[in-house]
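Homework help board

Subject: predicted structure for assignment chain

Our instructor gave us this sequence and asked us to write out the predicted structure in token form, then describe one feature. I got the tokens but I'm not sure how to describe them. Can anyone check?
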Amino acid sequence: MGKYQADAEKLLEFVGGKENIAAVTHCATRMRFVLNDPSKADEKAIEEIPSVKGMFTNAGQFQVIIGNDVSTFYNDFTAVSGIEGVSKEQGKALAKQNQNIIQRVIGVLAEIFTPLLPAIIVGGLILGFRNLLEGVQIESLGQKIIDGIAQSNADGSPIYQTIVDVSPFWAGVNHFLWLPGEAIFHFLPVGITWSITRKMGTTQILGIVLGITLVSPQLLNAYAVNGTAAADIPYWDFGFAHVNMIGYQAQVIPAMLAGFTLVYLEKFFRPRIPEAVSMIFVPLFSLLPAIFFAHTILGPIGWKIGTGISYVVNAGLESPISWLFSAIFGAVYAPLVITGLHHTTLAIDAQLIADFGTTNLWPMIALSNIAQGAAVFAVLFLHRTDKKEKEISLPSGISSWLGVTEPAMFGINLKYVYPFVAAMIGSGIAGMFSNVMGVRANAIGVGGLPGILAINGNIGGGWTAFAIAMLIAIVVPFILTIVFRQRGWFNKIDRVGEQAVAAGVAVDVPVETAAETTTSNTVVTEELFATVNGTVIGIGEVNDPVFAQKMMGDGFAVQPTDKHVFSPVTGKVTSVFDTQHAIGILTPAGAEVLVHMGLDTVELKGAPFTVKVKAGDQVTPETELAEMDLEAVIAAGKATDIVTVITNADRVAGLTVTLGEITAKTPIGKAEMLG
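My token output:
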């Protein structure tokens, strides 16, 4: 009888039996099912299985978290079920049967834009800082004077000088920062066409070349088109026809149409051209037609579509019922994040900036981030005596206020429900106020509290109005979270001190604290070390609900700055996962430690990893476990966080970790293990 045979039999029954399983596979920590009818899965019963640490559904896959021993569990499951596993790619393909056409489209958009987010965020910060340097009039700097004439607005009010007007140094900084700013946003089509070829598995350099041809300096810049007479627009003369030489700077839809055209042309020609000459003719027959179609048909059509969408959205946000439009959008943005639909707003925001120079949509997104964080801090206040809850909620709230909401939503707000609803209401009110006051952003990518850097201070209510909107997004969710809990509204299993609240009904339950648990047990302290050079973050900040919610156990993560990964503890290597992305270690004190390199990197089949240890090896913090190719992981659209988790959570009496910049092999904390 296998170690997990009994649990595997229960899981088989509770997922709906063999006939309900279309496919099953596993990664380093979880079983991944594609179910014919997901509604047949009895989640409540599955939660009661001893070896199950949690579950969630993502991208059509029903995922059951097992932990380090998932490979053993998987073997027992296939033995009792008689079902052969499939590859990760086959599983993902089969998972699409549980997705409707909208979910599939959103999934594609997500995979296109997610790898671009780091650049977009950096670009937003850069443009936000330039906004402060050149866009903020400061009265104390005096009135602006040009050619000896004091400058005034149309109403006679003075125009004051900005920082760049009075400081050559900051004027130079401002000028220099436009170099990366332009590269990120004006040349966005290059990133889009590259990302499409990466996602679709075709030749990525062709995608880059195609993108460059859309923004080449040979073309009339898209921003100069409206100010150029038709007769002055350059063109290619083919004798029988003229084609305007117009660039597509910052245009999203033309780039997407061109990118997919290139992809499908390559997929069409590759199987039809003999392999001996495919290196020459596949790129030739794919790239040149794609470029030609992009400038003759797809670009103009895509420009019209993108402009139409942006004008409709802008009109809705400036219409007589804009208050209703913005209130609804502000409230539902957080649920959009759960479904993945929020990725569509990136394209719309980019198009709004391309057409109008600013966007009225992004400020509401930043406010939604703030509202989710405020709700988390309210939960932290309510649970202030619960040390374990604090370890999750504090970093999650901070992360949300800095623009990353997934740890807050998945780790806290959705778990209890009522703070999520409170945040939605607060976000809706704040978004409505922001839009009614005419707040607009110059850039996208900067969310949460830093989002104020992207706000145009000279339009509508500017920074003052947005600051008030931020205050609304903090105060309203905080108060509503407390009220909802006290009233028992929208409450799903809230635990505070010695009282559990389920479905609005309070009942007394015994709570065993760590201190009480350890009084009758020997406690051994296990020293923890940094796995890599970089920044240590709390596990609640990891952008993966399985780790952030501590379904696998407590621990920490390091956002790496180099490729050398060292052991976080002294111990013995118990397992090296087939796809090289995860390593298990057992310490003398009995801590079962999982070192997980990157997030969701099982899909990469070990390509970015070079593991330097094997099962049975003794390791110390001086032992290099592996090398991780950071650029390859990022290029694949994955996060590089290296997560260290103690998976036998029942043995952990306490864990402390120092956050911040760290050097590999440096002590960063301690875990108290029950003997």
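Reply (TA_rk): Your tokens look well-formed. For the description, you could write something like this. The chain is about 45% helix and 15% strand. That's the kind of observation they're looking for.
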